[in-house]
Amino acid sequence: MQTKIKEFRARYDLTQEDLEKKVGVGRETIGFLEKGKYTPSLKLTYRIAKYLNPSIDELFIFDDTDL
């Protein structure tokens, strides 16, 4: 899975640590998401999208191998 989290963080001038604190995840989680090394829960996906303001489909790019 690919994400546009880094792009949206840059729009709001947020560090990975800032976003981790805002959405309630532990250290390195956002970095792993941005590198495609972690598949978030639906709850985390929703919290990140709600905080950064895009739709979930705009923020997370799923391909056939993710299903």
Concise overview:
The chain is mainly alpha-helical and 67 residues long.
List the helices and strands and how they pair.
Layout: E1 2-3, H1 5-11, H2 16-23, H3 29-34, H4 42-52, H5 56-59, E2 60-61
Antiparallel strand pairs: 1-2
Characterise this structure:
With 67 residues, the chain is mostly helical. The protein has one domain: lambda repressor-like DNA-binding domains (434 Repressor (Amino-terminal Domain), Orthogonal Bundle). The protein has helices at residues 5-11, 16-23, 29-34, 42-52, 56-59, and strands spanning 2-3, 60-61. It has a two-stranded antiparallel ribbon with strand order 1-2. The longest helix has 11 residues, at 42-52. It is globular. The mean pLDDT is 92.
What descriptive keywords fit this protein?
67 residues, mainly alpha, 5 helices, 54% helix
Number of strands: 2
Rg (C-alpha, Å): 11 Å
Strand residue percentage = 5-15%
On the 0-100 scale, what is the average pLDDT? 92
Taking the sheet with the most strands, its summary is:
2 strands, antiparallel
Estimate the global geometry from the Cα principal axes. Answer: globular
Q: Assign a percent range to the helix content.
A: 40-55%
User: How many domains, in number, for the residues?
Assistant: 1
Superfamily (CATH H level) name? lambda repressor-like DNA-binding domains
Runs in which pLDDT lies below 50 for 5 or more consecutive residues are none
Q: What is the CATH architecture descriptor?
A: Orthogonal Bundle
What is the highest CATH level, the class?
Mainly Alpha
Going across the biggest sheet, name each strand in turn. Answer: 1-2
Q: Total helix count? A: 5
What fold name goes in the CATH topology slot? Answer: 434 Repressor (Amino-terminal Domain)
Span of the ends, CA to CA: 10 Å
Secondary structure class reads mainly alpha
What series of H and E elements makes up the topology? EHHHHHE
